[in-house]
Amino acid sequence: MNLKRTVKTCAYKMTLCSVILASFFLSELLHAAQKNKWKSALNITSSFYNQQKFNDENYQVTDAEVSNKYLYKKDNFLYRHDLGGLFQMGGEEQSYDLRLSEAYLSYKYKNNIFSMGRKKQKLSQVDEEWDLGLTNPLFNHDYLNPEQMGAFGFHHTIRRNNIYLQSFASYVHLPNQSPKFELQDERVTSLNPWFSLPPEQVSEPGGVTPVRYGITEPKISDVIFQGSLNLKLGYKTKKNWLSIAYANKPGNELHKMFKFSEELSTNDYFVQVEANTKRHQLYMADIGAKFNNATVWASYLKDSPEQNYEKDRTWQETILDEQDWFSAGLKLENFYLANLSLSTSYIKRVDKEVDKATLLSFEELDSILSRSYFERSESVQLKVKYKYNINKEQKISFTSRYEYSIADKSQLTIAKLKYGYKRFNMFAEGGVISADKSDKSSFFSKYKGNDYIQLGAGYVF
To answer: Which tens digits make up the pLDDT trace of 17-30?
Structure first.
């Protein structure tokens, strides 16, 4: 590890500790001053993967996560934050990351709510239900359980009777936080089992050719300092809702570009990788209704990215295709049992035509250059949540998610059981990904070796 990277890592550790300690200290002061909602937690999880693409037959990752949630409310003022730090270790590798899901101030004046800071936006039901990451950016260190984060800027909502207008404007864009990676000996590595590693070789008519990499990172200012604007007009009562929304913003996922240069002296390819952001326009519409304990909804989202290319056609680039998504769902609360929730939903990508605008084409890059890490051309899913209070001090909760890809005939099953005693809790989680033999390029096929078991414990302060 060179000096520059050592200094950067040390600075990162100090920043992580400083932010977490400062947030805890501030929360404690405000908590002592007035009774408000406050929660800090430490969770340690050990995950065992049946990971085929790593050298070890069983790949183990240990996570240590510290989180702090705080809500302060007095009169018409409100302050909320949700932040934390994630430490991951696998073998001799380790990585750190900060998470700031929300941190904002709000003031209510008559029919208006003014907010400033990073706040989650509810623009599209299909994006929220399926974690597409097109509206809110994602903290995406676990592809199976991504967390939505807010947009940083000025938020305003005005309500009159059952009609509301929601708006957002900003010149600061915070994109997705994806798994960490490093470039070592011209190879891209990552300890995270969900990171999309670029191919170490590509197939050509004469056989396979090895690949080496170099990475040009974008300027932080070019990624962050960009304008965003969205508007949402809606009608909502206790029984029904209807809304339309529009957003013009940079994409939450970085646009990736690969330049292949054939090296005759070493008989391989040297690939230069660059990344930047592309602007997107989103058009959204939602409708829903409640009937006793049942809720039904339907949602449509169209994502139209800018099509102009900055590189010539010898570069391999992220496919800038339009995405039209339709989804519908049903949710049942207290279904036969108290605290039992069942929800099911269907999603379909309406248009599936993809037009590549590059001269060269490598099958190995298709999944890397897709804009959707979860390629759902048509899928259904079922979610189950249940909580049982044994007594005042003990409780058990169970959550599960099942997804079936109609297009790929593949499936995903996740189940988590959690036991809590006072402030202490223990949990176990397992997941199985299966893929049809004819499925070669989807998410399910790529990660079908990622069957896993997680064991963990946590403490709430």
So the answer is: 554 555 555 555 55
C-alpha 59/C-alpha 57 separation (Å) is 6
Tokens of 76: 């018409």
Q: Using alpha carbons, list the distances in angstroms from residue 195 to 181, 190, 201, 257, 310.
A: 8, 7, 17, 17, 26
Amino acid at 94: Q
Nearest CA-CA partner of 70 in 48, 45, 38: 38
Q: Which residues pair with 216 in a beta bridge?
A: 274
Enumerate residues 6+ apart whose C-beta is below 8 A from 22: none
Rounded distance between C-alpha atoms, residue 196 and residue 140, angstroms: 12
- Tokens at residue 246, please? 């529009």
pTM for the structure as a whole: 0.87
What proportion of the chain, given as a percentage, has pLDDT over 70?
Answer: 84
**Cα separation, 386 vs 342, whole angstroms:** 9
Both tokens of 456, joined, read 């963990």
How many C-alpha atoms does 98 have within 13 Å on its Cβ side?
16
d(CA 77, CA 93): 44
Torsion of CA 332, 334, 335, 339, to 10 degrees: 110
